[in-house]
């Protein structure tokens, strides 16, 4: 019994150590999600662009610009190391933070807050945000 408990505890310890680096990365390092594509969290070492009608479930973090295609949906926060641009009728179910300009396409919805490091936020016709942070 004692040996079994030690084996279980050691296994749990090894699993915990193995999981920690995966959690720290939190996402795939990809730059482009094809039209209609789906992905979990994104952690791009450069820019990130999603094609039209794509879906991301999780946060999007990019070292450079983030561009969402028309009718794209992100369920999570978006952090752009440069500009953020959303295509027509795209939705972010979270917050958007960009070091550069933020441009929202016609009918786009940001359900959380929006922050632009440059202070420039351009709203397309019918685009809405939950709030603007300075």
Could you please describe the fold and organization of this structure?
With 134 residues, the chain is α/β, with parallel strands linked by helices. The protein has one domain (27-133). Helix content is 18%, strand content 40%. The chain has one helix and 16 strands. Strands 2, 3, 5, 6, 8, 9, 11, 12, 14 and 16 form a ten-stranded parallel sheet that branches. A six-stranded parallel sheet has the order 1-4-7-10-13-15, with no helix packed on it.
Question: Which features characterize this protein?
Answer:
ten-stranded parallel beta sheet, disordered N terminus, alpha/beta, six-stranded parallel beta sheet, 1 helix, globular, 134 residues
Quick overview of this protein structure:
This protein is 18% helix and 40% strand. The protein has one helix at residues 2-25; strands at residues 32-33, 38-39, 42-44, 48-50, 55-57, 60-62, 66-68, 73-75, 78-80, 84-86, 91-92, 96-98, 102-104, 109-116, 121-123, 128-133. The strands form two sheets. Strands 2, 3, 5, 6, 8, 9, 11, 12, 14 and 16 form a ten-stranded parallel beta sheet that branches. It has a six-stranded parallel beta sheet with strand order 1-4-7-10-13-15, with no helix packed on it.
């Amino acid at each position: 019994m004692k040996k079994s408990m030690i084996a279980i505890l050691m296994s749990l310890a090894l699993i915990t150590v193995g999981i920690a680096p995966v959690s720290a990365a939190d996402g795939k390092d990809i730059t482009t999600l094809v039209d209609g594509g789906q992905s979990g969290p994104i952690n791009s070492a450069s820019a990130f662009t999603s094609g039209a009608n794509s879906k991301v479930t999780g946060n999007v973090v990019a070292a450079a610009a983030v561009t969402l295609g028309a009718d794209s949906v992100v369920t999570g926060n978006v952090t752009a190391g440069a500009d953020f641009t959303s295509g027509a009728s795209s939705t972010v179910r979270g917050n958007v933070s960009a070091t550069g300009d933020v441009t929202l396409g016609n009918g786009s919805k940001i359900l959380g807050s929006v922050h632009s490091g440059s202070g420039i936020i351009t709203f397309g016709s019918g685009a809405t945000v939950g709030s603007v942070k300075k």
